[in-house]
Amino acid sequence: MNTSNVSPPKVLITSYITLLLIGTVLLYLPIAIKNGAPDFMTALFTATSALCVTGLVTVTTITHWSIFGQVVILLLIQVGGLGVMTFATFFVIFLGHHINLKQKLILQYALSKNSMEDIIGIFRYLLKFSIIIESAGALILFIHWIPELGWGKSLWYGIFHSVSAFNNAGIDLFGNSLQQYTGDWVVNITISALFIIGSLGFLVIYEIINYRERRQLSLHARMVLTGTGLVVALGAIVFLLVEYNHALMQLPWAEKILASYFMAATRTCGFATIDMSTTMLPTQIMMMGLMFIGGAPGSTSGGIKVTTFLLLFLTVLTVFKGRKEVEFAGRRVSAADVFRAITVALISAMVVFIVTIVISLQNHDFVRILFEAVSATGTVGLSLGITPELNSLGQIMLVLAMIFGRLGPVTIGLAMAYQPQHPNIRFPEERIIIG
Questions:
Q1: What are the angstrom distances between the C-alpha of 16 and each of 82, 86, 311, 403?
Q2: Using one digit for the tens of pLDDT, what is the confidence trace for 386-435?
Q3: Is residue 434 part of a domain?
Q4: How many domains does the structure of the chain reveal?
């Protein structure tokens, strides 16, 4: 892994694009197809959705792709969720090679870590933790599905859905996501636990598990946990209230609560126990907001990140209070972080805006277009069913949105201008009118 002449962000982007092309070629092979002829656009879209752990699909996974194709999709999900450079570093260590400073810097960017302190130790821990969690989830689902699916099928389905959930991909083998398990507590709790853990970010999980040693959590971890808790709780309450006598009408009280919790939590994953096309407009608007927020930095989920959203909210409160510095949990937040949060949110909103405009050329319903654009940019995968109806241009726009959403505007920005410049000249300050 020779990276001496390129910047870490560029290495990350190049690695993703390279793997995307390999995945597309593999899914284009006749052996990957169960029914029908190979189609390049279908292969490209599916490979992108899997690698960017999004979950949007143009064909039904179980009926279109063969076992070989499903295995390719699963591998793309696993590599895309944990990170291409994570696996590249794993093989370097496995072969007995030393990780140099440049390679540690690349891994630092891949994990969204602010420093290289104990980066290799965290990396090793990340891989072990991921294998354990995915194995536990697969075992629970395997045992639970044996009476329904049989030994062989339940084993494959358990592994596939556990990996898909932990990596927040949301790609399923049932054809209708998890709608047949709306009232199944084992499936709901297991799957949601997997994608919530994946959405918290590996650094936060690392801090939680090692809490006994340090007896404190970083500001980043506290913001992630606080933001995630608030977003899921408020989303579940709104979903329950709005859909109580609509999409949830036929369910018993306990299952209404379970479904509301699951649909609010799946804002980062895309698995659904309720058909989103049957929900009311206020619910769809709320879900777009939750998908746009996403999970935590350095996690398997997308979106602008929950820390970005919370920081923007705190910035608004700071302005209203007439203060000059943003504070949270007894700590002052760097002004540079505030600027980055604003930049990430604005760039992501612009991407959603552009994708929506281009797809609108097909004259589809605006809400369905916007929902799909937000889902792709947030790498979520929830859908109102418009994706298979799009032409090649529309699907390419969603492909670009998924790539952007996974790599992130910050990484892309760093790749374009890796060397920061610090001008020695400061211009005179002058006030402008706002509002």
A1: 12, 12, 29, 9
A2: 999 999 999 999 999 999 998 876 566 555 444 555 566 777 878 777 76
A3: no
A4: 1
